[in-house]
Specification:
By secondary structure, the protein is of the alpha/beta class. It has a single domain (15-82, 93-108, 120-144), classed as Rossmann fold, CATH 3.40.50.720. It has five helices and seven strands. The strands form two sheets. It has a five-stranded parallel beta sheet with strand order 2-1-5-6-7, sandwiched between helices. Strand 5, helix 3 and strand 6 (107-110) form a beta-alpha-beta unit. Helix 1 (15-24) packs across helix 5 (136-144) and helix 3 runs parallel beside helix 4 (117-125). The longest helix is centred in the first third of the chain and has 11 residues, at 40-50. The chain is globular.
Length: 146
C-alpha cells in the first residue's frame, strides 16, 4: 500500500505569522462546511465558533449550519472576511481563486491534505496570505493554546 501525500506546499507562512493571523482574525468563511457527523469541516467549524470566531458557513447545499445562515458562495457574505478556510478537493481550488480575490480576505487556508500551488501563487500575487496542507483547528490549538 502506498501512502499518497499531496505535493509540498510552496511558501507557507512561518508559525509566528500563522499565530498572529489566528490571534487577530475575527471572521472565518468555511467553504465546504458540512453538518454530517464525522466530517472534519463540522468539527473544525464547531471548534472555531467555540473559540469566538464569527463563522460564515459556505455550502450551496445548506440553508443553515448550527443555527447560522449558510451562504451559497463567498460573494453572498455581507461584509469582510479575515480568513477563507477551504474544505474542497485540490483540483477545485483554482475555480475559487477569483471569488477569493474579490472578497479580499487576509488569508486563504487550505486544510490538511489540500495543496494547489498554482492557485496559491495567484492568491499571494493578489496580496492574500496562503496556508496549505495544515489544519486550522490543530494550528489554533497548538499556537494559541486552544
Amino acid at each position: 500500500m502506498t501512502d499518497v501525500r499531496p505535493p509540498e506546499p510552496e511558501a507557507n507562512p512561518a508559525p509566528d505569522q500563522i499565530r498572529e493571523l489566528l490571534a487577530t482574525a475575527k471572521t472565518i468563511a468555511v467553504i465546504g462546511i458540512s453538518e454530517k457527523a464525522g466530517r472534519p469541516s463540522l468539527d473544525v467549524g464547531r471548534y472555531l465558533a467555540g473559540r469566538g470566531y464569527t463563522i460564515y458557513p459556505v455550502n450551496p447545499q445548506l440553508s443553515a449550519w448550527e443555527g447560522r445562515f449558510a451562504y451559497a458562495s463567498l460573494h453572498d457574505i455581507p461584509g469582510p472576511v479575515d480568513i477563507v478556510d477551504i474544505f474542497r478537493k485540490p483540483g477545485s481550488i483554482g475555480e475559487l481563486v477569483p471569488e477569493i480575490i474579490a472578497k479580499r480576505p487576509r488569508a486563504a487556508w487550505l486544510q490538511l491534505g489540500i495543496v494547489n500551488n498554482e492557485a496559491a501563487a495567484e492568491l499571494r500575487a493578489a496580496g492574500i496570505a496562503v496556508v496549505q496542507d495544515r489544519c486550522i483547528k490543530i494550528d489554533h490549538y497548538t499556537l494559541l493554546g486552544g
